[in-house]
Amino acid sequence: PGEVAFHALLATTLAAAARHEEAISSYQAVLALYPGYAQAANNLGCIFRDQGNTGKARECFETAVRVQPGLVEAHYNLGNMLREDGDSQRAIEHFRAALAAQPGHARVWNDLGCALQLLGRIEEAADAFRRAVGEDPDYGIGYKNLAGALRELDRLDEAEKYYERARHFFPQDPAVAHYLGALRDANPERASAAYVKGMFDAFAQNFDEILVKRLRYRTPPLLFEAVCRALGQVAPLRKVLDMGCGSGLFGVHARTISHELIGIDLSTEMIRKASERGCYDRLEECDLLDFLEKASPKCFDLAAAVDVLVYFGNLSEIFERTRTVLRNGGLFAYSVEADLESERDFRLRSTGRYCHTRRYLQELARQHGFAQVSFSQAVLREDKGVGVEGYICVLSRNASA
After folding, report:
1. Burial of 149 (0-12, 13-18, 19+ CB in 10 A)
2. Angle at Cα 298 formed by Cα 292 and Cα 303, nearest 5°?
3. Which of 396, 49, 39, 85 is nearest to 230 (CA)?
4. Could you give the CA distance from residue 392 to residue 224 in angstroms, rounded to a whole number?
5. Is the dihedral of CA 33, 37, 42, 46 positive or negative?
6. Contact 328/298 with Cβ under 8 angstroms?
7. pTM of the full structure
8. CB 197 within 8 A of CB 266
9. How far apart are CA 353 and CA 179, in angstroms?
10. CA–CA separation, 131 and 125 (whole Å)
11. What pLDDT digit, counting tens, does each position of 310-330 carry?
12. Whole-angstrom distance, CA of residue 130 vs CA of residue 113
């Protein structure tokens, strides 16, 4: 027992001093002497997790909960690993096990809510977030997450109230400011770059699973089909720009018609996901308007914006700069959510995404020297089981304009 205690204290001291390799050796010595030391297994898992060794971290957390089923920290850590790996259902089981041992743990209630939300169980998620802030009234992220869940449930007055509470804790948070603006019918010309980057960095790990499976996202193939119809039978395009490439869902299609394919995105994590697909010749982390301003004139044969313009209200500058970087006859293909209700050019919805009117889009094309190749209405994805109507548009750069 004395040797176990010595190695355990040494490991804890080394870990606190960021001497991680030595701490790992000490924790392994503890577990060799006493395999049932659950706290040591959990602590070792935390070091492996922080080093990015998710496989070994998961093994350690699983060992810890097996030998001590009531160890809250281990269930919590394992639940978050499973959630990040896309296994939200098993994550929920471990969060609930942690709460069975410690029902007043606000952080576990919050992360349970996040896992439920990933599965589309929004009502349950809202209840979990509400419990989190009930257990700890100063738990700011719980208010932000509760507001988001209520917004998804269309309980907009309640959502606004909790976003206002969240702003007390996070006065500079771009997401809180963005959604408060949307709920209060503000209509800024674009979503802030900080909001878009933060959202997609957080969303990246589970992006494809949620978008394609849960929301039945179909915009990339719809836009690609429209581009192919516009091109007819032609050789691969010399240079193609995927504007706001995300994880590369459009890029895998564009690769088949591109000699050189460039993807840009604000999100570091999305650029990483796109890189893993291996379909781009070059990827760049940057703001769309900044990229277009610096790009050489008349260098692209196709510029595609798939589910990108929903984060911009006023599209005039994007149309202008996109025309500049397209060769004569080059194509600008984009999708937007359709505003079928208002007469305004654009409108920021409670979802945090913009919708645009057909009249506004067609007027922009005329003003900025584009000829309309195709313009169609289609269901782009689903939201709470209801189809989201949008426009799939392909324009051609007029040589004379």
Report:
1. buried
2. 55
3. 396
4. 10
5. negative
6. yes
7. 0.86
8. yes
9. 10
10. 10
11. 999 999 999 999 999 999 999
12. 9
